[in-house]
Automatic annotation (TrEMBL):
Belongs to the ABC transporter superfamily. It holds the Pfam family ABC_tran. This is ABC transporter ATP-binding protein. Keywords: ATP-binding, Nucleotide-binding, Transport. GO terms for molecular function: ATP binding. InterPro entries: AAA+_ATPase, ABC_transporter-like_ATP-bd, MacB-like_ATP-bd, P-loop_NTPase. Residues 2-241 form the ABC transporter domain.
Amino acid sequence: MLEVKKLFKSYTTGKAKYNVLKDVNFKVRKGEFVAVMGPSGSGKTTLLNCISQYIPYEKGEILLADKDLGKLNEEQIAKVRNERLGFVFQDFMLLDGLNVFENVCIPQVIKEAPYQQMESKAELLLELFGIKDIAKKYPTEISGGQRQRTAVARALMNDPLMILADEPTGNLDSRSSEAVIGAFIEAKKKLKATIFMVTHDSFAASHCDRVIVMRDGKVYIELINKGNRNEFHQELLNVLGKLNGGDRDDNE
Ligand SMILES: Nc1ncnc2c1ncn2[C@@H]1O[C@H](COP(=O)(O)OP(=O)(O)OP(=O)(O)O)[C@@H](O)[C@H]1O
């Protein structure tokens, strides 16, 4: 589904060059729910921005369903972003002037889909994520958890190959966070969605199938959820605690 191969990215500030991604390699399979974690500055957001082609990178390949996104022109990448990828951001990015139903419809409006097709798809997603009752409400009239569920529904509107989520629970209390992670789990189970999520939230990540831990611009380790969420959460906390504590027992 997604394959990142030998990815290198640096930023230049004045005369100084900072290597931020240094040979990043991993795969995400269809139907997988994968999180990326790691200390602040390890390159998680940069990685996400490279995958969505918002920033250029020096070297490497980013294959989505075997197509190298780095080889597409602006027009092609805009189409991939709207039709093949779904985005969920920390601050929701809903349009305040549109109600929940209209926000969910945006990706199909951009695609100029027929209204009836759009309406039935939106209704299905509103139902699935438990936000049907608030369809006519505006983003300022609903809770943070409901806003984020609306954003997840919107991200799925065009049946994307993959959802890219950047800190989707970052601004939420624990109850709302659980509701959002619940939405991802529903999307995975019922719609066979593939989800790739950058997060600092180890509880959220403990619901994933796999967690890619970054450190210093590299994949430090990949942890697999063997089925016991509590144990997986503990394993994540142990690895992250070790990294944040600066322990350099690594695989370099
Ligand atoms: N536009 C930029 N110009 C220069 N340096 C940048 C730029 N964006 C990020 N960086 C640097 O690249 C490194 C990685 O940043 P990035 O935002 O990808 O890390 P992160 O793992 O997402 O961090 P956080 O968890 O704090 O969000 C950091 O050292 C950061 O200061």
